[in-house]
């Protein structure tokens, strides 16, 4: 299955989960690049792997033998629900799409999906399957065919993010404590770590790659992924 490059734009607040906000602008101004949401009943467009850095797609078979498909547009921060390849609705993320007695819970970070689960009537949860051609599908295939490589990548991501926190946190603290609001009342903190610009850039890039790998494998830790999960975006 494939889909088009047009970003989705739907009615604001439609089906959104209370208590979650700030993720609808993951791209900073995605709405300006978005096209109107498809009309109800519009066919599911093809998915083009060339746009996999911008978009992704997941699907699940429902108890009534129909198929629910979710198109995710990271650029606009929106998700579109299709049932049996026909458009149902589009909404900003995070969102919970109702499907009778079931629902689909969706949330994203700057680097990928945090959550895309089918919630059954009894409260049980099942993650949707990534569609072929999506980054999540490629990453899952890598771990399936080469489990050692998959585990090594996951371990490296943890190491990179841990080192990144240890090295950048003191520098960030120094920056914050030199702001007038703090410095006018308290002594500024002086970081014992002073990395050159190229090293900080390298840390940022490797942390982004680590964040992407963890997002593709649906791994998330409140502290470890604090920098990469979009909290500060």
TrEMBL record:
| Keyword annotations from UniProtKB, A to Z | Membrane, Transmembrane, Transmembrane helix
- Residue stretches spanning the membrane: 152-173, 193-212
Q: Where is this region: Disordered?
A: 1-50
Composition bias of kind Pro residues appears in 37-48
| Transmembrane helix in keyword set | yes
Q: What is this protein called?
A: Uncharacterized protein
Species source reads Prauserella cavernicola
Which taxonomic lineage is given here? Bacteria, Bacillati, Actinomycetota, Actinomycetes, Pseudonocardiales
């Amino acid at each position: 299955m494939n889909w088009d490059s047009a970003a989705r734009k739907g009615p604001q607040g439609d089906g959104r989960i209370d208590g979650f906000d700030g993720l609808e602008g993951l791209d900073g101004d995605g709405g300006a690049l978005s096209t109107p949401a498809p009309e109800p009943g519009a066919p599911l467009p093809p998915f083009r792997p060339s746009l996999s850095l911008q978009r992704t797609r997941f699907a699940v078979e429902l108890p009534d033998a129909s198929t629910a498909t979710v198109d995710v547009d990271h650029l606009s921060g929106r998700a579109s629900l299709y049932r049996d390849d026909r458009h149902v609705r589009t909404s900003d993320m995070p969102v919970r799409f109702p499907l009778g007695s079931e629902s689909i819970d969706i949330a994203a970070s700057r680097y990928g999906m945090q959550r895309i689960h089918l919630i059954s009537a009894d409260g049980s949860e099942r993650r949707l399957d990534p569609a072929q051609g999506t980054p999540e599908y490629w990453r899952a295939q890598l771990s399936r065919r080469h489990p050692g490589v998959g585990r090594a990548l996951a371990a490296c991501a943890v190491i990179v993010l841990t080192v990144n926190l240890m090295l950048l946190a003191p520098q960030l603290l120094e920056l914050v404590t030199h702001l007038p609001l703090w410095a006018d009342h308290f002594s500024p903190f002086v970081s014992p770590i002073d990395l050159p610009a190229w090293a900080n850039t390298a840390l940022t890039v490797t942390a982004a790659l680590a964040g992407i790998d963890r997002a593709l494998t649906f791994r998330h830790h409140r502290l470890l992924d604090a920098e990469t999960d979009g909290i500060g975006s």
